[in-house]
Write a structure and sequence with these properties.
The complex is a heterodimer of chains A (119) and B (480).
Chain A: E1 2-7, E2 10-14, E3 26-32, H1 42-53, E4 57-61, E5 69-73, H2 81-84, E6 92-96, H3 103-111
Parallel strand pairs in A: 3-4, 3-5, 5-6
Antiparallel strand pairs in A: 1-2, 2-6
Chain B: H1 6-15, E1 20-22, E2 25-26, H2 37-48, H3 56-59, E3 60-62, E4 69-71, H4 80-97, H5 104-124, H6 128-142, E5 146-149, E6 172-176, E7 180-190, E8 198-201, E9 216-221, E10 227-231, H7 239-242, E11 259-269, E12 273-276, H8 282-318, H9 325-350, E13 353-354, E14 360-361, H10 364-389, H11 392-395, H12 399-403, H13 408-414, H14 423-437, H15 440-447, H16 452-462, H17 465-475
Helix pairs in contact in B: 4-8, 4-9, 5-6, 5-8, 8-9, 8-10, 8-14, 9-10, 10-14, 10-15, 10-16
The chains are: A alpha/beta (119), B alpha+beta (480).
Bound molecules: flavin-adenine dinucleotide.
Chain lengths: 119, 480
């Protein structure tokens, strides 16, 4: 497992990653924490990530299939879903604990190939 | 889950005809009655948020009895994580409603019964647990809202149930039949009763010999024959009818819309009876229900306090005092108090343990400590809000005065704070603070889930005073 901590509440875990090059569209599964006392507006943040991504990302849910990457949106440092969900099942997971990473940068990270993300 | 959306929930209430009295009048349609709509809106949040991807992690769970995805308010806690999620969920919903959303009482009743019926069966070879699990499956499948009916009217509090001049002042079994039992009595202060589907009646206290008829647990649909609800009057209740600024929070209810639930010879079939005469388990059930309920208060009241703190800061900003050092310090104190009560709820959950039934249970001493803090801290937070908000909270003119063609201009002129903020905006925040920090709203913090003395009794029982004396002796090198 390669893991990169990019600071600003961002964590990236990569495994056997493929980049969806055949279609040019990447499927990303979106998962939120429950939102008990979030430090930022998670839904508004995701909306801006979605509009920064445009059509190059197809957003799906964790229950769906055929995605490489999970984007986990957590409202605070505790990042509860990391405690209760097994993220080793997914090829790559990117988690956000605040809105400091700009939506454009986040989209770039989500679209990066395995090579580009080597530590 | 049959009831999924707010619309499903309202339809289910409309379909069930319940006898409810408000201010001496019979209510025809409980879903259209102006005094109940804010309470329905609050409880509906427990359904609505479960459907949102950004909240489902807290609002839903996987049933241990069916393996299906269910609303967390019908779930039996399977881990410490579940206990913590319960508290987080309560804080989250309180941010949406700024008041009680009522569904925790039935939730706690179900969890305490799951654990306790298991242990009754173990000792008495009864079949309550099996029956209860069947009932639970139905509640999970329908996604029903349940009233947690513990508190009896109690009459003369110095006397036991069987010693009361009127034996109905504690709810009791008046007849046992082949097919079921007949129940008489009442349950007082019942949260969410007018907008629930069923009531789970439980004994109000530990019962002794001679009080067997009062050791009764049963699930009763609120439209059963003989059930009558009488809604409780609340501070400034009629302001809600105006739907204007004066209500403070007109969309959502004030506390839980409590009602007196009268049970006049109500028949309950055996499959809905989960305790009948087992006085030796009444104390355990009451203690477990109380612990599970006291666990909640740092979550919901912590969340409600977040709104009071935000409103206090806005009130200060709107009158130009937000930068004053004593105001900043008072806001810091309020933040400290809110996080203190939240910490208590998280702590008792984190220290939770597994019961024989497999269900998880919070640490009882820490849960009692949490609720005991609530009986003080919410008053302290409200006191600080009153300090910051100013006398205007007690003397503000009516919404209609603001809109009056004659005196409106005076209200706008003389009730204004800083430039750039309208008088109307200032009035809205002041009214919200008034709504949340006085009268009925405060009493809930004192008595809901038990009066302070009931928690102090738990300190005496669970506080390990003897152990503390031993530790002190050891440090002081005392051998005697
Ligand atoms: C807003 C609100 C919502 C509620 N929701 C629910 C609900 O959904 N379900 C439910 O079952 N209950 C509910 N309750 C009831 C709550 O649990 C009770 O109010 C609480 O247990 C106290 O009982 P009481 O109101 O009868 O107070 P009382 O018994 O009248 O207590 C008043 C005072 O007398 C003292 N006292 C009482 N008995 C004795 C005694 N024998 N000896 C010495 N001192 C005594 C108490 O310690 C207290 O100081 C709710 C209450 C409120 C205020």
């Amino acid at each position: 497992m390669r893991r990169r901590r990019a600071g600003d509440g961002l964590a990236v875990d990569k495994r056997n990653l493929t980049n969806g090059a055949e279609t040019g569209i990447k499927k990303v599964a979106l998962k939120y924490c429950g939102g008990c006392n979030p430090g930022f507006d998670r839904v508004a943040y995701v909306e801006s990530v979605k509009s920064a991504a445009g059509p190059v990302i197809e957003w799906v849910a964790l229950d769906d299939e055929g995605f490489d990457t999970v984007l986990l949106i957590c409202g605070c440092e505790t990042a509860c879903p990391r405690r209760s969900l097994d993220f080793s099942r997914y090829r790559q997971s990117v988690s956000i604990k605040n809105d400091k990473v700009s939506p454009r940068d986040l989209v770039k990270i989500l679209l990066e190939s395995e090579e580009a993300n080597e530590d | 889950m049959k009831i999924r959306t707010k619309e499903d929930y309202i339809k289910s209430l409309k379909d069930q005809k319940v006898v409810i009295y408000y201010n001496g009048e019979l209510v025809e349609d409980r879903t259209a009655f102006p005094a109940f709509i804010p309470h329905i809106n609050s409880a509906a949040k427990t359904y609505e948020l479960a459907l949102l991807p950004e909240n489902e992690d807290l609002l839903t769970a996987t049933s241990n009895v069916t393996g299906k995805k269910i609303n967390r308010f019908t779930h039996i806690h399977q881990s410490v994580d579940d206990l913590i999620k319960k508290v987080q969920m309560l804080r989250l919903i309180a941010h949406e409603t700024a008041s009680c959303f009522q569904r925790c009482v039935g939730f706690d009743a179900m969890n305490s019964l799951y654990m306790t019926t298991y242990e009754i069966d173990e000792k008495h070879k009864t079949k309550y647990f099996e029956r209860f699990v069947e009932y639970l499956k139905k509640i999970q499948e329908e996604n029903f809202m349940l009233v947690g009916g513990m508190t009896d009217p109690k009459g003369d509090r110095s006397k036991r149930p069987s010693q009361q001049a009127d034996p109905d002042l504690f709810t009791r079994v008046v007849e046992k039949r082949k097919d079921g039992i007949v129940v008489r009595g009442a349950k007082a202060h019942q949260t969410g009763a007018v907008n629930s589907h069923e009531i789970m009646i439980m004994p109000t206290q530990a019962m002794g010999e001679g009080d067997e008829a009062y050791a009764i647990v049963a699930a009763i649909p609120l439209d059963a024959k003989g059930v009558t609800l009488i809604f409780g009057r609340q501070t400034n209740d009629e302001r809600k009818f105006e739907c204007g600024i004066d209500a403070g929070n007109c969309e959502f209810g004030m506390v839980g819309g409590e009602a007196l639930v009268v049970l006049e010879d109500v028949f309950v079939p055996w499959e809905r009876v989960f305790m009948c005469g087992e006085i030796d388990f009444t104390g355990m059930l009451v203690e477990r229900f109380a612990t599970l309920h006291r666990q909640n208060y740092g979550g919901c009241k912590g969340g409600v306090s977040d709104i009071v703190i935000g409103a206090s800061a806005l009130a200060a900003q709107y009158q130009g005092t937000l930068d004053a050092s004593h105001i900043k310090d008072k806001l810091v104190e309020m933040l400290h108090l809110a996080e203190t009560v939240y910490s208590g709820s998280i702590a008792c959950s984190a220290m939770g343990s597994k019961t024989k039934s497999g269900a998880y249970y919070p640490d009882p001493l820490l849960a009692n400590c949490t609720k005991h803090n609530i009986t003080r801290v919410i008053y302290d937070i409200s006191r600080l809000a009153h300090d910051i908000g100013g006398g205007i909270m007690a003397t503000l003119p009516f919404d209609k005065d603001l809109r009056s063609p004659v005196v409106g201009k005076y209200v706008k002129k003389y009730m204004k704070g800083v430039e750039g903020v309208s008088t109307e905006t200032r009035m809205k925040i002041v009214r919200l603070l008034e709504n949340m920090t006085g009268g009925t709203a405060l009493v809930e913090s004192m008595h809901g889930a038990g009066s302070p003395q009931s928690q102090r009794i738990m300190y005496q029982r669970l506080g390990k005073l003897g152990q503390k004396m031993k530790m002190a002796k050891k440090i002081a090198k005392i051998d005697e």
